[in-house]
């Protein structure tokens, strides 16, 4: 994985997100033994050769693991929509950058609903160290005009 991330960086990637899709299958103690150590090895290896490459960690359903995720050494912890972003910010602290965490289902709502959810998320995330994003990928069948609206609203935010 580290070799692949380095290849992506050498090919022009400006940031890389690492997915640990099985993290939620593990208890916190098992996550520490069977995942955390290996994620840290990946991050450490990449940072040796690409120290300025931002690394983002996404672990779906990671509410029970939040405080452990920064121990990997990543630059950003990505939150899915099952974690209240204000609580995630509180638990991770102001020095940890976060990404997320709008429910992809929001994009099936009205433009007003999408706009309100974006502003609410940004406000709850606090000033700085937040990358606005969905809490997971776009769902098949999502109206394209709603995705475009998401980006237009996001680009216009100035807090």
Automatic annotation (TrEMBL):
Domain Uroporphyrinogen decarboxylase (URO-D): start-end pairs: 2-155
Superkingdom per UniProt: Eukaryota
Annotated TM spans: none
One GO BP: porphyrin-containing compound biosynthetic process
GO molecular function, one term: uroporphyrinogen decarboxylase activity
A Pfam match: URO-D
InterPro entries linked: UROD/MetE-like_sf, Uroporphyrinogen_deCOase
Name of the molecule in the record: Uroporphyrinogen decarboxylase
